[in-house]
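Quick question, first post here. What does this chain look like in 3D?
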Amino acid sequence: MDLGRSRGGTQKTNNPGGPITIELRVNERIRVPEVRLVGPNGEQVGIVRIEDALRLAQEADLDLVEVAATARPPVCKLMDFGKYKYETAQKARESRRNQTNTVIKEMKLRPKIDPHDYETKKGHVVRFLRAGDKVKITIMFRGREQSRPELGFRLLQRLAEDVGELGFVESSPRQDGRNMIMVLGPHKKKSEARVDVEAEKAKKVAEHEAEQEAERVERAEQLKQFEAEKAAGATKKPKGPADNLDPE
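> Answer (accepted):
Ran it through. Tokens below.
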């Protein structure tokens, strides 16, 4: 390890004004007379001169990293800074992967929708909510239908009640020109919904494999029975001409 070569790291945090970059000072970039030193396993070494802290880092083949610059004196820790940056980046990627963006699906209906079409549309809404997505329901009015907004309102109420186990009315029905709009939100977050979907898939796979195994066992039993009947038939003595004569 070359302590003569300064190495630094950055850490970003979010705030309403934009990202703030915090640079960690490492090794020779730490320019204070003394530091509160923490060992590689978290043990408290105490307040030591910066020269002694750098020497201990070099002897342990580690880096001296300033982890609390505002403390008096600053807190520094002995660590493998390259490994620390790698693990931090991995955690950041994992965090981004686990973050879920809110998705709004849209479903359009007519106030006098056919019952079959309603069930089909409702099925799509159920699927969206079950996946953790919001759903924007739009009732489209045409011609004289615009004078009967209560038709659309009752339809939206009906739909909200039908999917009440999966979602709730996040935005109440409101008129928007020729349309009436309502937004449904899922009861479960998208991450929770994804877990449920994966669990349901795993359950179906397990049930399918169990059915296949049961069928395999049944076929094996049938084959075994067939072989047994075949073997029993082969041991019977075939009848000859003499067997058909009258004994007297």
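Confidence is low (pLDDT under 50) at residues 1-6, 10-21.
The CA atoms of residues 99 and 191 lie 8 Å apart.
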